[in-house]
Design brief:
Strand content: 5-15%
Helix content: 10-25%
Distance between the termini: 109 Å
CATH topology of one domain: Ubiquitin-like (UB roll)
Number of helices: 2
CATH superfamily of one domain: Doublecortin domain
Structural class: alpha+beta
CATH architecture of one domain: Roll
Strand order of the largest sheet: 2-1-4-3
Number of strands: 4
Length: 151
């Protein structure tokens, strides 16, 4: 018994019956151009990462709290389309009575108004509605309690 679907049947390779040879050549040329264009992308190097795509580690302090030693957190600027979203996220990290509503630089007390301004390794002061209180935030250390056992 012979197989019905053998090499005797000449199957057409064109997607549409009746396509001319010129249309086939144009389709092949378009496919080759597409393949060439996609192969031209250069590999990304490790040092080629833009600063917008990396996370930024910052230290956050509470406004006016001279006993809060700061809390380090990582911020990815692409996760936040505006400063309000970042402040809402920081409200879960830093415990303030009315949440984090403002962000200041610790040295001059200038207010941060954009997420892209935040720098890696920098320190910032979180506040609710009160004005910035000038303290030496970066030099705050956790106080050590000592006990005198001899009594």
């Amino acid at each position: 018994m012979t197989d019905i679907l053998s090499s005797h049947i000449g199957w057409s390779r064109s997607p549409m019956p009746g396509a001319s040879q010129q249309q086939k050549q144009q389709q092949d040329q378009q496919q080759q151009n597409f393949q060439k264009n996609t192969r031209r992308a250069l590999p990304r190097l490790k040092n080629d990462i833009s600063p917008q795509s990396t996370s930024r580690k910052v230290t956050l302090f509470r406004n006016g709290d001279r006993y809060f030693a700061g809390k380090q957190t990582a911020i990815v600027p692409q996760n936040y389309s505006n400063l309000g979203q970042l402040l809402q996220e920081l409200s879960t990290t830093i415990d303030l009575p009315y949440g984090v509503r403002r962000l200041f630089t610790p040295n001059r007390g200038s207010e941060v108004t954009d997420v892209s301004v935040i720098k890696d390794g920098a320190s910032y002061v979180c506040a609710s509605f009160e004005p910035f209180q000038k303290l030496e935030y970066t030099s705050i250390a956790v106080p050590r309690l000592t006990f005198n056992i001899e009594q």
